[in-house]
Amino acid sequence: MTVANLGATAAFLRQPFLETIAIAAGALPLAVLLGTPAALAIARGGPLGTTVRAIAAFVRAVPELVLAIVFVVALGFGPVPGTLALGVSGAATIAKLYAELLESVRREPEEALRATGATATTSFLVGLVPAAWPGLVGFGAYAFESIVRAAVIVGVVGAGGLGSAMITSINLLDYASFAWYVAALVAIVVAVDFASGVLRDRAPPWVALATFAIVSLVGVVALATTAHAPWQAFATAPPRVVAYLARAVPPAFTPALLVSAGFGVLETLGVALAGTLAGTLVAIPLALLVARVVASGWVRGTGYRPWSIVPAALTRVGLVVARSVPPIAIALVALSFVGLGPKAGAFALAIHTAGVLGKLFAESLELTDTLPAEALVASGSTGLAGVALGIVPGAFAAMSAHLLYRWEWNVRASTTLGIVGAGGLGQQIFNAQQLLHDRELLAYVIVAIGLVILSDRATVLARRGLHLRTMER
Contacts by 38-44 with C-beta closer than 8 Å and gap 24+? Predict the structure, then answer.
């Protein structure tokens, strides 16, 4: 590629790239500023904590794309609605994670400081935060990873960034540009994943604080560069959102809408189920290829095999790409060869699920005690028998938990895949948005939230039952 071609590529990538950075980097400080006080309120308990916990749980149940639609309808197109949507969604996630962390940390140092006459603020900062700091950084890094991935998704409904650019390139059948946008997205996600891993594992506190400050500054600069009057939009957002909700209330739960929503729910669940099952079936052999206890060759009873490095490395790269590209981007590609409808949605979820579960399953296999497998191989069993009987049973509980979590995630994702024509409730939501039918839009959104809440509850019960059966063993 010539220098001129590189310059042209950088030129058309610049605006959507900066808008995606603006959305993600701008949403992080908003999520932390809203989520941290909420976490403190939840951790302290009482009526206020109970109320905040319920609000955070409700907001977490709303898919990011649905929140983005509401903010786009209320505020107009551009990165500001996407920033607000991900900031609010991220705040709910941080509130839950930080509250659980603070509740699990030993409180004796804080209580001792309080007993000596220290103020509540001093006791908290000196007695509690240092012990919780590694977890706070880790959860914050995880929240930012989620925000970066979602920053592309919200662009699909008019929040700008790489998501909007992907939609445009697919509509114009410009697959070369689409490939560049996907490459830019993968580069962002991989860089954020690497930086998050460094922060979680070995970064001193000042590095974590400096990183947060730099990301926040980048968000401010990127928003000022890419958005029109962003600070005015932030200031006027609350009354405009309230005005939109006033127009949309009461939701139009007509008989025709309920029938349409019912079909949408069934299609959404079908897409989620097909994508989860197919992705799991693909993830299992891929996990065996990359799990070190299997890939190194020793479990076959033949010792280390250098040639296994190549397939394991290639599989790892494939898993990174599969989980880095959002399902909506995969669905856009799938629409080109399977057509409109739930097949494209199921295909997209299967690819993304395989990437995520392949990594998680491999980690579960690597953390399992290998002594049973070693004993089987030493007694003459084949390596396959050693894996099946000596390693997989020990990893089954963790793998099942990952599968349940993925099902929960796929239900959320499948409620919005229809926005690009890939089946599910998203199609009705998108149509109502495009036609400015506010009351119908709110009704479909309520149905989507209800579906996610019921799915989450069913997953919690299933996870609890799995835990009890594991304890009985």
Answer: 38/91, 38/92, 38/94, 38/95, 38/99, 39/94, 39/95, 39/96, 39/97, 39/98, 39/99, 39/102, 40/99, 40/102, 40/124, 42/95, 42/96, 42/99, 43/98, 43/99, 43/102, 43/103
